[in-house]
Amino acid sequence: MLHLNLPAEPPLLHAGKNEVLLVTNADLREPANVQCWPVQEKFEARLHQVLTERFGVTVRRAHPVHAERGHGFISSQREGSDLFASIDPDAPVIVLLTAWQYSHHLAPSLARHRGPILLLANFDGTWPGLVGMLCMAGTLTSLGRACSRLWSENFDDPFFLTGLSAWLRTGQIEHDTSYLQPIRRDHAVLATPAGAIGRQVGEYVLRHKDIIGLFDTLCMGMINGVFPQAALCGIGMPLESLSQSALLAEMAEVPPALREACLTWYEARGMRFNYGTDPATELVRDQVLEQCAMLIALARFARRFGLSAVGVQYQQGLARSCAASDFAEGAIGSSERFPIPAPDGTIIRPGKPIPCINEVDMGSAIPQTMLWRLLDALGLPSETTLHDIRWGSEYQGTFYWDLEISGAVPFEHLNGGIAGAVGYRQPPMYFPRGGATITGQGKTGRFVWARAHYVGTQVFLHIGTGHAVELPAEEFERRRRATTYEWPLMNVVLDGVGRDDLMAGHQSNHITVAYVEEAQLHDVTRAFVAQALTQNMTVCVAGEPGEWLAA
Hints:
The protein has 551 residues and is an alpha/beta fold. The protein folds into two domains: 19-170, 3-Layer(aba) Sandwich (Rossmann fold), CATH 3.40.50; 183-548, L-fucose/L-arabinose isomerase, C-terminal (L-fucose Isomerase, Chain A, domain 3, Alpha-Beta Barrel), CATH 3.20.14. Helix content is 35%, strand content 19%. It is built from 16 helices and 18 strands. It has helices at residues 30-55, 77-85, 107-110, 129-142, 158-170, 193-208, 229-234, 244-252, 256-268, 285-305, 326-332, 362-377, 473-482, 499-505, 518-534, 545-548; strands at residues 19-24, 58-61, 93-97, 117-122, 148-152, 180-183, 212-215, 239-242, 272-273, 309-312, 385-395, 398-403, 422-423, 445-455, 458-469, 490-494, 510-515, 538-542. The strands form four sheets. It has a six-stranded antiparallel beta barrel. Strands 2-1-3-4-5 form a five-stranded parallel sheet, sandwiched between helices. Helix 6 crosses helix 15 (518-534), helix 10 crosses helix 11 and helix 12 crosses helix 15 (518-534). It is globular, with a radius of gyration of 23 Å.
């Protein structure tokens, strides 16, 4: 006879009349949680005040603040799962996000929660919550769970108050996402000369495959960055799954003399490294030499497996094993690159970037690799990167986004190239083993941007255009100090897409960019749309390209 012996169920936490439950999520890394906690406390207090004084609604924290840990964040999937097992599944829940958060802590539970969910972010560059909110929103989309999203700088503006009022009354917020224009599979762009080029490139990929090699996959909780295998195979971009332990083994085989030659090559071309003496808190030469070994190892894996693109997860495993991957990632994605020898002595892809999929985000791997393939086939510069949608603010009446990847971009994306790059030590809070960033100001120019997400096994691609600017030194410095000083920063305007448009409709904390000269921008965008349609994707164009796409 069977005997059931499950643990006792906890009593359910219910929301009373005019009451909502508050959940806070953040990092897996406890030093980051402790450092970010004061900002969270400040915005929790503001939220309590506005709900109580303006709406007569009580906020009940669904989980405690742990004095011994120094914060009150959910910081693991186990903790998040146990929490939601104790919450009434029909209760209204606000997830307040003021820092980077690992979506997998909460997403599996939120996906099954029946009550209304509001993802609420502070629009601030410090840690920041808006990045975490975009990641969680995209993750819930990939899991098939609708939710509401809201953002504000101070929780007191009319946009915020109107949205919060709507959610309290109806359990949802309806944002205007008409900036996204669906492209039919028989759209007239396919009949343009540029569209014909895009179809040819797409057909080539479907036939020959662009294989994406990723060293481990789920990075920092980004469920929205892990696509189903059927989705990748359906667009001709299958995954080569690699182990980061194999990367460490390959790095160990790179001799000291080759590491030194690599670093000397970049120093001779003008890159400056901000060296110190204490490896625990400062950048030291040995850390960069280890990154050079990773660069060489990555290129050798690309040759060995016939990869079109390669990416390193780094967090959480390699972070405890070797220097940060960032210098290697930016350098391998550059056309001007140290001549990396294969074991047989031949140089690996000289003069050609190898697209690097930062944080192994497949939603960026797709457009990065597509744009690389298209631009390379056209004989145009083909460097690509992703960026975090980190923050943004107005300058002289124009809103400029601050796009800021967490460590490195291809040198060709920086003002001054290699000579315009500085290597800072990655912050010890996140990177105990150190390593150099590739930091500088994003250069002025036009670009195509994109992002892929999935629903079921169908791949969706958002495509737009924009222009980057080099802001005056004082303003650029202000933005660097308001975000993460050690990371490269690109200031941009997205054509026909405002701040609140992107926050309402984007399905990720990441965005992919590739620079394209003004004279070729329209035709490259047309070709890119046609390529995506040919590769079986559902396409939306964002903002201005919808006005001229078929012209």
